[in-house]
Amino acid sequence: DYESFFWVLAKSLKPGGSLFSSCPNENITPYNGYKWHWRHFVPSEMRAFAKQNGLEEVAAFSTTCGIYKNGKSCLFYPHQIRNDEPRELEAAGTMFFEFRKP
Hints:
Elements: H1 2-12, E1 18-24, H2 43-52, E2 56-63, E3 66-69, E4 72-76, E5 94-100
Antiparallel strand pairs: 1-5, 2-5, 3-4
């Protein structure tokens, strides 16, 4: 129940606290039954979860952290995640958000 999970995370924050989130972008990397994921999200869903739970968006960007073979994400390379080269949300497969509780 991802909506309840997000609610618990937001509720756990103190005023001024930050929630950092990463998830695959369904628009770029459609869910294909990958065993470590239950589903993928689109940017508007993540922003709606934050807004519904009283959080403000501080930052949002994306990065590529996998390789593709036959149209599927197959390998994950954490060393490819570079915070000095953020991309627009729709430019790469993994989204990163920072939300803050006012």
